[in-house]
Fold:
Amino acid sequence: MLDLAVLAAQEIDPKGNQSIGWLAGLYTLGLFIVIGLLLWSFTKMARKAREPWEGEDTDARRPEDDPPAP
Structure:
């Protein structure tokens, strides 16, 4: 009798299965998809940010490149 009361309080069926519900499952799946898209976008923008800009000199200027001061 006590076992049935515990199972009813925990909302677990006697077979040991616990239903999470369709709404919670879809919400969790959607959350994983959104996080995956954000990570993909972040890595794409990080790669793009490492490329030189249009018209930018790819070689860094060094002090040796400057003409000597008179």
About this structure: The helical segments are 2-10, 22-50. Residues 22-50 form the longest helix (29 residues). The chain is about 55% helix and 0% strand. Residues 22 and 28 are 10 Å apart (CA to CA).
